[in-house]
Amino acid sequence: MANSCFTEYIIRGDEQEIKALHETIIELEKSPAPYVANGWGNLYAGCLVEKLGGSHNNVCCRGEITSYELNDNGKELYLCTESAWSELDEVRAFISQKFPSLKFIFASEESGCSYYVTNDTECEFFGHYKLETIGVDGCSDEQHYLNNSDEVLEELQTITGIGFGSIEEALEYIEDFNSEDESKQITLSIFDIVT
Q: Residue 22 domain-assigned?
């Protein structure tokens, strides 16, 4: 899928509602055929919406569940999805109507459209910044999720040896650095905070 958006969810709430949602997903996955004809497979978001009594024609369902796991104590359900362009917000809203106790904490990334969104205001699970290095001397190609601008500036100083006074100053440096050699790149993505 072009412009794939990857979202991680931590779902908390009433244990019975968590269990019911988890069991519905398992049932869909084990089904011999998708609950709704589609090009995604058994875990197409529209299958979940239909199974829960909704209509995939009325809820934007352009995506699928790629993995899921119930934590050991049964109080949190972890979901990962791949969708087109953005987070499956209409599916999330629909599930919240069916299971009113459930609260979703999520982070969503679609780098092609520079779409970085989270509702984790306290950085309990997801940082508000993503720093990536590729081919940078002294760094393995990796990504770091960081909670605040101080952590970002500290990490950048470790990578570059330069102290930056602000995120804006760091972004200017990154732009200049990236223009010098395409094989050496630093990317800093800033998550929008939504409620």
A: yes
